[in-house]
Every structure is written in C-alpha cells, then in structure tokens.
Amino acid sequence: MRRALTETERLNRYRVPAVEMAVRILKQLKRHPGPLPLSEISQSLKVNKSTCYGVLKTLQQHGLVSYDEPSKRYSLGLALMGFGGVVGSRLDALPAARPLVRRLAEDLGLTSYLAQRLDFKTGIIVERVEHRASADLSIPLGQQVPITAGAMGKCFLAHLPEPEVERLLSSPGLRPFTARSIVDVHRYQLELKRVRETGWAESVEESLLGHNAVASPVFDAGGQVGMVLGLIGSNRSMPEERMAFVGREVKQAAETLTPILQGRSPACAAG
Question: Which of 7, 13, 115, 208 is the most core-located residue (most Cβ within 10 A)?
C-alpha cells in the first residue's frame, strides 16, 4: 500500500525554481530597510548572480521591483500596492470582523487580532487593534507566525485531522520561544484536547515572556478553522486568574463571528 503524501510533499512536486527564486527575492527586499545591489541579493540568497539578475529584470518589467540606475540598487516596486489593495478589499468584505475585533480590545483593555493560516507551517495576522493599555506590545499587520505558536497555534491544530497534527508536531515541531513554551508533544496534545472541550486556547508566556494570550477558532463554511480570534496582554492586564473570563469572552465573540462570515461550527457542518 502506497504511503499518502504529506501536504509539503505534494506542494514540492509542483515547485518551479524560477518562481521560487522570485518569491525569495521579493521577501529579501521586504526584509531590508533600503534598496539592495545585485551582489548583496545574490549573496544573501546564495544564488547564481546571472540567474538572480534575470529574475530581477523580469520582476522589474512587471513593476514588482524598482531599479535605481545611479545607485544600481533594487527595491520593491509600486505594482505590489495593487496586490495589497486586492487583499485589503477581500478583508473589507468581512464588515463584521473589524468592529468586533475593536470592541474586544476596548472592552477588555487588551490587544486583539485575527489570524489566518498562510500555508502548511505558518499563520499570518490579518487584523489587529492595539489597546493603549498594551502599548508595550505591537503586532504588525502581515506578521507571520509559526503555526504551532501560542494560543493561536493551538486553535489551528485542535481541529485538524490527527495525521496532519502529527506531521506538524514532527516538522516544524514545537519550537521553544520562551522558557515556558510547551515542547512536550503529549502535553501539547492535552492542550489541544482542552481547546476542543472549552472552545478557547490559553498561552501563559509561551510566545513572549511577560505576556499571556487567549484565542478561539472562527470556523468557515466547511466547519474548518478559517480564522483565529485572539487577545494578548501583559501579565498585569491579563494575569492567569483572569484568563478563563477572557477566554469565555473571546469564545463568545468567535461564535458570533462564525455565522456572520458564512461559517458554521464543526458539529453543524457534520450534520
């Protein structure tokens, strides 16, 4: 009997090296605060200089990369703004999400966020409201987070099929972000069971020392986790004894958001 391919293996079958290089170049330019010369781009990515040049010129032709002739340096192109506008318009199609995220932050005095799954190993922040009481914590829009990280990760994994959970726990595995991060697989699986039972996840300094978090899944039309709604605060604004109360609040908000976004709970989807 042939072994079923993992999601990563299936994707790798269709990799196009030139496209992958283009993506790596765009990510490199995004990470760097200023324009970069060809030599630095090719060296940092460990790719052939002439091949890198060809990909850069193709990206430049489509406006995805800009080239400054006097300095001979490359930066992200203005055409990327158009892509951002399309993504933003899709998020704007969820009119109930932003007011609810904002209300949670204002009512509870915590930073609130919405996250989606970007790919097999990564989540991404698609909305956030930073409360003034959490001024020491900033969550940039578009920030990418390992899929196993903190309360957000527990919400994503809690409702995945068991084989997929096992693959994620073996690769990328449980990363120790802090001394309090859960890296024991059995203990982590008990946390996932708790999420399914209570409807929310907790993270006590697991992703960032001095900060706690709670989160709850928002389900899509198929009863899968489409988004995660979460709250983060310092130990002072969200001490451990307050987390159960905050957890019930975020669960109620996620349950409100699910049908508004045309989603339904796993029980309803199964029925």
Answer: 115
142 Ramachandran zone, left/alpha/beta (phi>0; psi -120 to 50): left
3-state secondary structure of 116: strand
* CA 143/CA 46 separation, integer angstroms: 25
- The residue ranges of every structural domain in the chain are 7-80, 94-270
Alpha helices in 62-161 (DSSP H): 80-92, 97-108, 150-158
Cβ-based neighbours of 43, under 8 Å, separated by 6 or more: none
In DSSP terms, 233 is beta-bridged to: 212
Residues 153-205 pLDDT 10s: 999 999 999 998 998 898 778 999 999 999 999 999 999 999 999 999 999 99
CATH T-level fold of 7-80: Arc Repressor Mutant, subunit A (1.10.10)
Residue 201 belongs to what H/E stretch? strand 201-204
